[in-house]
Amino acid sequence: MSNDTPITSAELYTRAKAIQSKISAWRRTIHKYPELTFTEHRTAGFVNKTMLDLGIETQTEVAKTGVVGHIQGGGGPLVGLRADMDALPIQEENNSSFDSERPGLMHACGHDAHTAMLMGAATLLKEMADEGRLPGAVRLLFQPSEEASDDEGKSGGIRMVEEGALEGVDAVFGIHVDPTKDLGIVASRSGPLMASADEFEITVRGAGGHAARPQVANDPIVLAAHAVHAIHHIVSRRLDPLEPGVITIGQIHGGTVNNVIPDSVYLNGTIRSFSPDARQLLQDELRRACGVVEAMGGSFELTIKKGYPPTVLDPEATQIALDAAAEFLGEENAPQAGMVMAAEDFAYMAQAAPGSFLRLGTHNPDWPQRYFVHTSTFRMDEDALPIGAAALAAAAVKWMQEKRAGSGE
Fold first, then answer.
1. Which one, of 311, 317, 313, lies nearest residue 348 by Cα?
2. What confidence tens digit (pLDDT) does each residue in 277-295 have?
3. What integer is the mean pLDDT of 72-79?
4. CATH code reported for the domain at 9-193+310-407
5. Which CATH code of 3.30.70.360, 2.40.128.630, 3.40.1160.10, 1.10.510.10 fits the domain covering 196-305?
6. I want to staple 386 with a disulfide (CB 3.0 to 4.6 A). Which of 16, 104, 227, 314 is the partner?
7. Mean pLDDT (whole number) for 267-278
8. CA dist 166 to 137, 170, 351, Å?
């Protein structure tokens, strides 16, 4: 039966707070049993059963281990809501009642919370649909493998797009916990939000020998040192100072004992930027910088593995999402977010449909410190869970309402 009573963001938040204990229990269940990229079988099964119990139609094994749900409301736009499900290879050190029970694995990036919040949003939106009040349809995108890629170099986001999970979607919204922001804040921005992330590997080759006779060798450690020095000048001297970019060398391996000059040195690092031109320039200049090795009589092999593109957000979708959050949090708590050099494979979904990505504050100001993502002690204030669930649901509903109003329906 149709019901013309409009849905407000405040109502969605009230309903989300009413099921906070359920969302928290979902999050803790997922947190206890973390799974790595494309192995999220238990998590996907838990999500699928919960959706079916809510009366939501699902499709499983999308992008290998993903789950896609569908909520049908009245005639109107189709909005996608996305959460990622995979964990990280980190040993948890929190001593909570729901710490990871899998040694060496942890939900250290909040994907357990993302999944639980989307389950919460699905609960709210299904209630709206059952009441005849949902002015459109929702596609629930429970995505595997955001943290890593498979042997073909593809993450869960691009695989979902390739398998048609975004077909027909008029807009797509995602969310991510952000311990740099306090509880009660939901932020985003139009345009570039997160950077591209490419990986590189360099093998520097020289000529090994005895440490006491360096004159008859060509020390690849010295060659690599010159290369590192040249690489660290790329951003400061080759990239436009007004263009963000970073090159970081995260690994150097060479040598076995103190009295042997090795034959080669291995380096590994990352390149991050926000524009296609800067991305290409940094890759080109990286190769040129390595040329110092050849000038000194050595040789090098450089491999660049392209990763996620920049996450570029649609202005209209972002404004709608922020307006929806501001309606129940206040405008001062739905600010513009700053750009960050981290990367996200939500970028692929934002290329497939107008997209926006929300940054959810999870830090309790009364805590003695901030507990950052990708660390063994990451934690969040679970009062953020209903905020995130409501923010996702409200963004979807506000998009539907504005598009229907614009079409004259």
1. 311
2. 999 999 999 999 999 999 9
3. 94
4. 3.40.630.10
5. 3.30.70.360
6. 16
7. 97
8. 13, 9, 10
